[in-house]
Structure formats: C-alpha cells, structure tokens
Amino acid sequence: MKLLYFAWLRERVGTGEETIDLPGGVTTAKDLMLWLSQRDEGYAYAFEDPQLIRVAANQQHVSMEADISGADEVAFFPPMTGG
Amino acid sequence: MKLLYFAWLRERVGTGEETIDLPGGVTTAKDLMLWLSQRDEGYAYAFEDPQLIRVAANQQHVSMEADISGADEVAFFPPMTGG
Amino acid sequence: MSSITPKISVSASNFDVAAELEHLKAGRTDIGALVTFTGLCRDENGSLAALELEHYPGMAEAELQRLATSALERWPLTGLTIIHRVGRIRPGENIVLVVTASAHRRAAFEAADFLMDFLKTQAPFWKKEHPASGNEPQWVEAKSTDDTDAARWMAKDAR
Amino acid sequence: MSSITPKISVSASNFDVAAELEHLKAGRTDIGALVTFTGLCRDENGSLAALELEHYPGMAEAELQRLATSALERWPLTGLTIIHRVGRIRPGENIVLVVTASAHRRAAFEAADFLMDFLKTQAPFWKKEHPASGNEPQWVEAKSTDDTDAARWMAKDAR
C-alpha cells in the first residue's frame, strides 16, 4: 500500500511517500494511524492530535472508521487551507 | 416644476420632459399623478394602473404620499428593469 | 471603511472587465477576495435582435452611488466598482458590471449579491426588447422575483 | 445541465481572468450572468514574503471535479471554471479562480459561493506562510469559520 503525507504531517513524518505492507489487524484508517504513530517519534508527533488528521483512500475523503485495507493509496494530511 | 417621464410612461404621455406650474391643491406625488391623468387620453393611459407607477423627487425615490410641492424635478416611470 | 471611493459609471461604451479588475487591484496587497458580477444580454432562441437600455440621467448615477454607499456601510469592502451600460446592446454583450473587493470572501460575495438585487429594483434603467422578427419592440416587465430577492436583505436587517 | 464540461486546472502558472471569461462566453448568447471569484494572496502589514501552496496531485484535480459535479447537479449552470494555483505566490498575486455562468444571477452567485466554501474545506491544498522577516515559515491553520460557511449548504439541504 502506498502512503502519502502532506503539509506538516509530511514534515513531521519526514517523508512524503512510502510503501508499506499493511500489518494484520489493521482495517480502518484509525487502525493504520495508530499503528503508524507507534513507529517512531516523528510519526508519534505527526499523529499526536487525531482531531487534526484527515484521511483519503484512493484520492477520496474517507472517515477514520472507513475500511482502507483494500486501498492502493492512503493519504494523511491536516485540515485543508486552500482557496 | 420640471416633470420627466421614462420608458412606456414617456411613450404614452408623448414627451420625456415638460415644465408645469403646480396647480393649487396638488401637494403629494399622488395628487400630481391624478391631476396629470386628467389632462388628456395619453396621460390617462400612462397613469391607468397606479400600481405600476414609480416616482422620484429631485432624483430620489419617494412614495406616492410624499409632499413633492417643493421639488424642482419630479419623475414618473415604470418599475425598473436594469441590471 | 468609508475611505473607499467607489467607481460608478453609466455609459453607452462597453467595459473591459480585466481593466476594471486591474484598476481595483493595482499596487495593493490588502485584497483577499474579488467578486465580479457581469450581466450579459441573453438570447436563448435567436429571437432577440438587441436590447435598448433607457436610463434617467443624473438619477441613475446618484442611485448607484447611494447603493454603493449602503454596501460600504454594511460590509468592510476595500474596493467597489459599478458600471451600467445604456443604449443598444446586442445578445452576448455586456450590460452591467459589479466588482467588490474585500479582505475576506464572505463580505465580497454578499456585497456583490446585495448590489445586484438593489440595482435591479432601485436603479432607474429600463430595458426594451427589439425582436429579431422586426416586430414592434416591447418593454421588459419587472419580475416579482427581483423584489423578493431585494427583500431578503430587509429580512436580514430585521433579525 | 449535465452536458456542461467544467474546466478544472491546478497549475503553478498564473491565470488570466479575462481570457478565462472569454473562453467561457465565446460565441454564446445563453449566458445572462457570470460570477467570478478571484482569491488573492493578501498581506495587509508587509509581514508576508510569499505563500507556498502544497497540494495532493491527482486528488486535488479529482476533488475539484467532484465539487464541480455537485454544483452542476444543484444549479442550472451554463459554464463553470475552477483554477487553483500551487507553488510560491507573492502578495497581490492570484491564488484561485471560480467562474460560474448561468441564465440568471441567483444560480451563478450561489454556485460560486458554494464552490468556494467547499473548495476551502474539501480540496487538498495547504498554505505555508513565508514571513518577510526571514523567520521560520508557518503552516496556515484551518479556520472554523470555513467549516461554518460550508455547513450553511447542509442546512439548506435539510430544509
């Protein structure tokens, strides 16, 4: 699965893109976020405030409860500030 | 007093502008309209539906009940259709 | 924001939207949002040769100025332009332009919307349609929806 | 009105408002109202050197397309353009353009307003401010008023 990070999430994680094998037991976006946040300090810092995390699966907004286990591409990012 | 007419009111009256001496007893815009509508068939036709008549005194919208006896310029016209 | 001088124009000439935007923006960095309304002469089925726009010279400019003043009192605008054409206007051509500038988009949107609603119902302009058939031209009738639109703002005031 | 193909663009290049309006209008007489929203890089007190706009390539375009589709389902639009710039943008420069065309002004105003509200809260773009002081750049925080603005349309749906 391809993972993407944007804005300050990208900066805290330390990379904009990586490929992972989804570990067993990770089904929802929230599961994935919790798993990622335990990887190292950078990830922990990136995901420290779950209220500020938005997620997209295959380039569409999904909720934290959505099943992302079948997605090719999952992206995490802060609330959007375009326009 | 200068009187102005616009759009189909101008066409029905037969002139866009005229100068009158305000007759005694004419105080409000409605008084003036009633007096004008008794002048001839064109005026009667122009003012036949009072609901469609708008009035301005000295280039500002006023109500039919407004005292226009002191105005230099009074204009009658249909509902506006600009924009 | 009473320091803003709105640009008001009533003219038979066409206007250049890009030039008007440039005029409003030039050399400034305090504008976050620009809303531009352009009203065009519409003819969906080829039945219209042209519109003829009559106006009340003097009062038309004065009324647009009064509407501009109301908008400037109501919203923190940083720029305002109102241009209305008169005379003969063909399908596809410009009739009216309203440009509102503000730090934030809500003020710019609302002010432009407000100005168009009141311009339609308060500014002394009248449209006559010249049919492509060559038949007698007809004065356009005022729409009750325009009064309803304008009344929205009174309801907001009363709240 | 699903026959309209909206123009969607995400690009580092500046856009030309006049050219976009011309593109939308060219050769047509069915447009009565054009509403143009231009979002500019604002810097009221000289403290900003530039904004840096990051986006999610692919999803940004897809999300603008989804917003355009929603607007076209909701209002009888006759034309629609959405352009969002990315990269480094200086004070006074363009950031975003939304143009809505319709026979009547209410649809054009509402659709442009709707699109900007959802573009702000749904389209994957992020702004970073580079201060003129040379200090560390800062990510712009999302405003709760933007969510409130977007929520207005849900309330209308529920009525």
UniProtKB/TrEMBL annotation, chains A, B:
The keyword Nucleotide-binding applies. One of its GO terms (molecular function) is nucleotide binding. InterPro entries: Beta-grasp_dom_sf, MOCS2A, Mopterin_synth/thiamin_S_b, ThiS/MoaD-like. Keywords: Nucleotide-binding. CDD domains: Ubl_MoaD (cd00754). One of its GO terms (biological process) is Mo-molybdopterin cofactor biosynthetic process. One of its GO terms (cellular component) is molybdopterin adenylyltransferase complex. The keyword ATP-binding does not apply. It comes from the Bacteria. Belongs to the MoaD family. This is Molybdopterin synthase sulfur carrier subunit.
UniProtKB/TrEMBL annotation, chains C, D:
Residues 129-148 are annotated as: Disordered. CDD domains: MoaE (cd00756). It comes from Pseudovibrio exalbescens. Pathway: Cofactor biosynthesis; molybdopterin biosynthesis. Its EC number is 2.8.1.12. It catalyses: 2 [molybdopterin-synthase sulfur-carrier protein]-C-terminal-Gly-aminoethanethioate + cyclic pyranopterin phosphate + H2O = molybdopterin + 2 [molybdopterin-synthase sulfur-carrier protein]-C-terminal Gly-Gly + 2 H(+). The lineage of its organism: Bacteria, Pseudomonadati, Pseudomonadota, Alphaproteobacteria, Hyphomicrobiales. It is an enzyme of class 2 (transferase). Pfam families: MoaE. Heterotetramer of 2 MoaD subunits and 2 MoaE subunits. Also stable as homodimer. The enzyme changes between these two forms during catalysis. Keywords: Molybdenum cofactor biosynthesis. It comes from the Bacteria. Converts molybdopterin precursor Z into molybdopterin. This requires the incorporation of two sulfur atoms into precursor Z to generate a dithiolene group. The sulfur is provided by MoaD. Belongs to the MoaE family. The keyword Protein transport does not apply. This is Molybdopterin synthase catalytic subunit. GO terms for biological process: Mo-molybdopterin cofactor biosynthetic process. One of its GO terms (molecular function) is molybdopterin synthase activity.
